Amino acid sequence: MTEATERTDAGQGIEGVLLANRDRIVRFLMVRGAGDAAEDLFQDLWMRLTDRSSGPIADPLSYAMRAANNLMLDRYRSAQRSELRDKAWGESAALPKPSAETLLISREQLLLVERAIDATGERPAAIFRRFRIDGISQRDIAGEMGVSLSTVEADLRKVYAMLADLRRQFDAG
Predict the structure, then answer these.
(1) pLDDT higher than threshold 80 for residue 148
(2) Are residues 17 and 67 in the same domain?
(3) Which pTM does this prediction carry?
(4) Triad 94, 95, 96: Cα angle to 5°
(5) Cβ-Cβ contacts under 8 Å for 44 (sequence gap 6 or more)
(6) Which domain-ending residue is among 93, 128, 153?
(7) Which of 76, 93, 110 delimits the end of a domain?
């Protein structure tokens, strides 16, 4: 590209640079691994660069090529994350199903846990469920129940101690 052409491109803004160098940028994207998606990526690049209101760019072609490269890096990272996620989902689906005995034991343990939580008292059980299951903050629970924050913390410690004892029994038995 000659110096005169570069000045003209710069004068036209980023849209002019993209139009004048469309084939070059598409080839660049293809070489970087975009394949058949190069045209779509060029459109994404167009949208990214023309949606922004930016000041003058010293070297608009270099800027566009760098943005195209960043777009390819984003695409690569997204594909990697997708592949890892799909692999993880596939592995979890391949886990063996628990036996009927394991299911029965798990249900019995769940019933024992629920009973242990209830045995700590109505308020500690309610506080525990609001905090651990509903995800409400301790401060909000204190306000809802009309108790101090230290009371909420003490009730949670009581339930946690009961659950720790129960866990030790499960591990020993």
Answers:
(1) yes
(2) yes
(3) 0.45
(4) 115
(5) 71
(6) 93
(7) 93
